[in-house]
Amino acid sequence: MIGAGPAGLFAAERLARAGADVSVYDHKPSPARKFLMAGRGGLNITHSEDLETFLARYGAASAPLEPLIRAWPPQALREFCTDLGEPTFIGSSGRIFPSSFKASPLLRAWLLRLTQLGVTLAMRHKFLGFSAEGLLQFRRDDQEDLYLKADAVVLALGGASWPKLGSDGAWTKLLEHYGLRLAPLHAANCGALIEWRALFRQAYEAKPIKNVRVSCEGASGRGDIIITQTGLEGGPIYALSSHLRRQIEAETQAHLTIDLRPDTSLENLMQKIAKRAPKQSQSTYLKRAGFHGPEIALLREAYPLPLPKEAASLAQLIKNLELKVSGLADLTRAISTSGGVIFEEVSAELMLKKLPGVFVAGEMLDFDAPTGGYLLQAAFSTGFAAGTGAARYLGLHV
After folding, report:
1. I need a labelling partner for 367 at 20 to 30 A (CA). Which of 158, 169, 194, 201 fits?
2. Could you give the residue ranges of the DSSP H alpha helices within 227-328?
């Protein structure tokens, strides 16, 4: 087992329960670093929506992921957490969290269980690839390279986002050496880059704009967004990152539309903002109409001319505020990665067709998961599939 994130650890557990002698190798000093970081703001483990809707969230990867997630669905992940002493609950958005709202208690209990199952963790072992004899080659701190024979291997090396936590995408060159076809790695669930004017950036960096709908290419996301020094971040922006990327690649920039009042119809909004006193300034009457400073500033930033005085035109702008997106945040700040090993290169049990006995799981596979628990669910489900496949390859009963 190479890679000590959720996918690798879960594949290890599956193999250990089948009776295999399992070791997990990772080049970092401790396991599951990105998993722990994800839990700092509340570990969103999966989502409660119906399975058909859930599967559709993966877009183009829905078809190959469907049998894997059906084999180990969100309910199974909830039961897994409960078995480790962390019962889950459904938040107001439908997202599912462990009771402690953190990753660390869950990980501690999980590592203890893996130890009890006989799984060993070998940290500070950087995977270099396969030797000419088919041995696994590792580089250890200030020691000679280590060569090991394995009857089956599960690669769970992650994507390339937040490389300081362990996943740097270096494995792509290794697999390409064996003729495997990979989709390029891109930042996913990442911020949109927008060229703000200096005064706006200085005054409103880190300010939230709540409860908006953002749209691109006919797709939309809803929730809170944050103004950053370089653009916008937040769940609705992350949900559109793949759409923004496609438009940028085709047209050099993307068009993002923001509805600042998604719960108010255009007609009702017109009626509301039409009640302006003759001598009242535009900013004052917008504030009295319920608009906050960052919203008003964003309207002025996006609209190069003075804001329309006519209620109809101003309401139209509020409901359809357009911003030009020049790019996306890079991999060092992205929540996840799209691209990787395409599904045509693996069997139904995620074994590489060109490398018998070698399985892949987690973000190494070519799928793009939005925020909301979908990435972790896919990591566990593909870890389950790869662990099951490796066990069967070894002739073990699962």
Report:
1. 194
2. 235-239, 241-251, 266-273, 282-288, 293-302, 311-319
Q: What are the residues whose beta carbons fall under 8 Å from the beta carbon of 333, sequence distance 6 or more? A: 161, 162, 187, 190, 191
SS3 content of the chain, % helix, strand, coil (to 5): 40, 20, 40
Q: How does pLDDT run across 225-258, given as a tens digit for each residue?
A: 999 999 999 989 998 998 999 899 999 999 999 9
CATH number where 77 lies: 3.50.50.60
Owner of token pair 């090396």: 157
pLDDT digits (tens, 9 = 90+) for 2-44: 999 999 999 999 999 999 999 999 999 999 999 998 877 789 9
25 and 101 share one domain:
yes
pTM score: 0.88
Q: In this structure, are residues 151 and 394 in contact, taking their beta carbons and an 8 Å threshold?
A: yes
Helix (H, G, I), strand (E, B) or coil at 212: strand
Total tally of structural domains belonging to the chain: 2
Full domain range(s) for residue 285: 192-328
**Residue where a domain stops, chosen among 281, 298, 328:** 328
